[in-house]
Amino acid sequence: MTTTSSLAFQPVLERIAEEIERTPGRGRAADYIPALAACDPRSFGMAVAELDGTVYGVGDWREPFSTQSITKVFTLALDLAREGDELWEHVGREPSGNPFNSLVQLEYENGIPRNPFINAGALVVTDRLHSRTRDAAGELLSFLRAESGNPAMDFDEEVAASESAHGDRNAALAHFMAAYDNIDNDIPVLLDQYFRQCSIRASCADLALATTFLARHGIRADGTRLLTLSQAKQINAIMLTCGTYDAAGDFAYRVGLPGKSGVGGGIIAVVPGRCTLCVWSPGLDERGNSVAGVAALDRFTTLTGLSVF
């Protein structure tokens, strides 16, 4: 295991891509969202962004894909920057131990979701950001465009419509929390914002760049501060413990970095003070995480020695 200089990132990525290409069994694309079901599970892209905006990539690293739950990280950052610790009165910070769309814990815990990255918690965060901006999804898109330097990034209306048409469980989560006075906006408005948020299409390069504010301890690409040092630490910590749902322990064991996955097959990861990564491969395991994506990040930290441990 050797510590990697910036100049060595490209050969490391190329080695990882070669290893992934030889790996059988890449999982299955998400089929409960019809617009995602047609993705080729053997597609693969990976990017590393340094703190100065230099990006390295391999494979389909510039191919836009459906970000899905990866966007929950950015919505959390945008809301936490606005309201601070008051947010934590409405959503917890503990791993759930249940699937990302589970209703089970909400009844036991009086409508307070376990963390911001399960669907119930993300709905609460989106609701609170929408109350402060009147356009949570638009605020998120503007932020991602600015941080990635890609003004063409946009919503995928087909995916948003597909999620809306198959969104009964998310509606149930929202209504249940509203019954505990933990939702402020009208449910149809909230669901529209949430589905649009999840439908944003971005590439590995876009997302690696957009995530660098967490590696810079809260500093945006333009040099302004979005988060305090403590807030950036908090988000990275929750990514490590909750970012891959009920597989977070295994992800921390294998990868050793704060990360956040999405059922579109993407995963972002943060090496604080050094760089950020995004990997994409649509084939998922039974817990909704990219099979090749987790394997690639595991190899990255093994080959480079870059980890938080």
Structural account:
By secondary structure, the protein is of the alpha+beta class. Helices cover 46% and strands 10% of the residues. The protein contains 14 helices and 7 strands. Helix 5 crosses helix 9.
Give a brief description:
This protein is an alpha+beta fold and 309 residues long. It has helices spanning 9-21, 34-37, 71-83, 104-108, 119-133, 136-148, 157-165, 168-179, 187-199, 204-210, 212-215, 229-242, 248-254, 291-304; strands at residues 45-50, 55-59, 65-66, 201-202, 259-261, 266-271, 275-280.
Distance between the termini: 14 Å
- Sequence of secondary-structure elements: HHEEEHHHHHHHEHHHHEEEH
Helix percent band: 40-55%
| Major beta sheet, strand line-up | 2-1-7-6-5
Topology:
Blueprint: H1 9-21, H2 34-37, E1 45-50, E2 55-59, E3 65-66, H3 71-83, H4 104-108, H5 119-133, H6 136-148, H7 157-165, H8 168-179, H9 187-199, E4 201-202, H10 204-210, H11 212-215, H12 229-242, H13 248-254, E5 259-261, E6 266-271, E7 275-280, H14 291-304
Antiparallel strand pairs: 1-2, 1-7, 3-4, 5-6, 6-7
Helix pairs in contact: 1-14, 3-5, 3-6, 3-12, 5-8, 5-9, 6-9, 6-10, 7-9, 8-9
